[in-house]
């Protein structure tokens, strides 16, 4: 029997396994996917949002605790635990030396990369390199890893972990960390959560999954049935507007279209439906998937002109290109008259000042609903480009209630040896909304806490047995 069992194979799970092993516990990690798909959604990440009081290697200027907290409070509209959020923020300031020790390397952000050079530390080689580094370190330290081992059920006794079941196999341990992700890949659960709208549509049928196909939420649903305390709204998620041509699973970052704030967004009726210039893109990109999900047919269209080209990260698919707005409408199969009418009204409403996409500039619309409050310039310089976008779910926010020790709760009582990290508890910090890189901050902070606490619980049990 191992001291600590870690269920999951992404960033949070690996941080937990490494910390537990460093604390002297024997560790077994069960990953649902085959080896070649290991890493969960973490393999698709790029960076970690980090608090810092002064410039540090790849991080410019300063990004202090209060600013980080206010950024998080704003995007969540206050739907967050301040205690746990500040815990994550403070932990983000001290985790990088530990990450480096386990083989993670950092690099400066590329010029113009969503203006994140002050707030986010980028992984050299991206999330796949981070995941591989952690697996190499874990295996060198003696962490046992088993792939193709999805856990369906836990044996619990009075809120304490006894064993996990993966297929016909039973795994006992003295403590356990749950880090098996959300339910974003479970289409039936998404349909159940989102239901049917007033147009008779099932919105979830048109969702794409940016991340892993292995996050089916089986263990989360099992924990709900076992009476674990739950937090979060099942319809809330890290939900990004991505290219409608993206694959159903594992499209990752390259399927995102980052041009929204540089142009306008239309629905299938060729009508604008939200302020594209509300705030900086890293603080607003993750609201657009949900906004598109509320539109007819769960589709939106990002329209830009040639002035925007080169100002955003190129997506993997090229945009539909046309030399005139009517031709672009026809190419996108949108109503030509309404399309041109919408663009003409927008162009006429633009009050262009000093355009600067790196600040909240004074380029805005006047007398237009919805307004565009920043970066509003007429779309009038051919060629024109359009991207059809669908909601892309990264991870869901419904999860297990926890505390500063990462403990799982049953009837408001914390478990003595069952802990949670990553997407399975992110809803404690993210009630809604998102800001770039904070998912990795949450997973790293709570993965490390959960691993430390699990090792402490396991080794305390061992000591107690030895004394007895």
Automatic annotation (TrEMBL):
Keyword field contains Flavoprotein: yes
Entry cofactors: FAD
Pfam families with a match to the protein in the record: FAD_binding_2 (PF00890)
Taxonomy, superkingdom: Bacteria
Residue ranges occupied by any FAD-dependent oxidoreductase 2 FAD-binding domain in the UniProt entry: 3-430
One GO MF term: oxidoreductase activity
Oxidoreductase listed as a keyword: yes
Sorted UniProt keywords: FAD, Flavoprotein, Oxidoreductase
Protein name per UniProt: FAD-dependent tricarballylate dehydrogenase TcuA
Species in which this protein is naturally found: Caenimonas sedimenti
């Amino acid at each position: 029997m191992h001291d600590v069992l870690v269920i999951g194979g992404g960033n949070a799970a690996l941080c937990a396994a490494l910390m537990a092993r460093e604390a002297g516990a024997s560790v077994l990690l069960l990953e649902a996917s085959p080896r070649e798909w290991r890493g969960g959604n973490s393999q698709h990440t790029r960076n970690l949002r980090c608090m810092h009081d002064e410039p540090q290697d790849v991080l410019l200027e300063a990004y202090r605790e209060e600013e980080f907290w206010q950024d998080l409070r704003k995007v969540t509209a206050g739907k967050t635990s301040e205690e746990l959020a500040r815990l994550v923020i403070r932990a983000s300031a001290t985790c990088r030396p530990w990450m480096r020790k386990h083989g993670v390397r950092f690099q400066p952000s590329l010029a113009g990369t969503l203006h994140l050079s002050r707030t986010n530390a980028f992984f050299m080689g991206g999330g796949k390199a981070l995941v591989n580094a952690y697996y190499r370190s874990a295996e060198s330290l003696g962490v046992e890893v088993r792939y193709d081992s999805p856990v369906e059920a836990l044996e619990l006794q009075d809120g304490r972990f006894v064993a996990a079941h993966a297929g016909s196999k039973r795994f006992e341990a003295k403590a356990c960390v749950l880090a098996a992700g959300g339910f974003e890949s479970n289409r039936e659960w998404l349909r159940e959560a989102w239901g049917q709208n007033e147009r008779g549509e099932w919105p979830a049928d048109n969702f794409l999954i940016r991340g892993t196909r292995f996050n089916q939420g089986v263990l989360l649903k099992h924990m709900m049935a076992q009476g674990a305390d739950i937090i979060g709204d099942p319809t809330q998620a890290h939900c990004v507007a991505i290219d409608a041509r993206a694959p159903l699973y594992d499209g990752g970052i390259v399927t995102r279209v980052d041009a929204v704030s540089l142009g306008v967004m239309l629905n299938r009726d060729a009508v604008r439906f939200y302020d594209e210039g509300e705030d900086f893109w890293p603080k607003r990109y993750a609201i657009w998937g949900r906004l598109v999900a509320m539109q007819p047919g769960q589709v939106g269209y990002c329209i830009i002109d040639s002035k925007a080209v080169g100002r955003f990260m190129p997506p993997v698919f090229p945009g539909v290109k046309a030399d005139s707005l009517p031709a672009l409408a026809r190419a996108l199969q949108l109503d030509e008259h309404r399309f041109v009418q919408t663009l003409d009204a927008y162009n006429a409403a633009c009050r262009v000042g000093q355009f600067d996409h790196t600040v909240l500039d004074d380029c805005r619309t006047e007398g237009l609903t919805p307004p565009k409050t920043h970066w509003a310039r007429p779309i009038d310089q051919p060629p024109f480009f359009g991207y059809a976008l669908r909601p892309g779910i990264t991870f869901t926010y419904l999860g297990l209630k926890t505390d500063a020790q990462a403990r799982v709760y049953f009837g408001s009582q914390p478990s003595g040896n069952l802990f949670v990290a990553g997407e399975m508890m992110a809803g404690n910090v993210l009630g809604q909304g998102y800001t770039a890189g904070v998912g990795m901050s949450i997973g790293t902070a709570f993965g490390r806490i959960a691993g430390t606490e699990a090792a402490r619980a396991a080794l305390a049990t061992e000591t107690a047995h030895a004394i007895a």
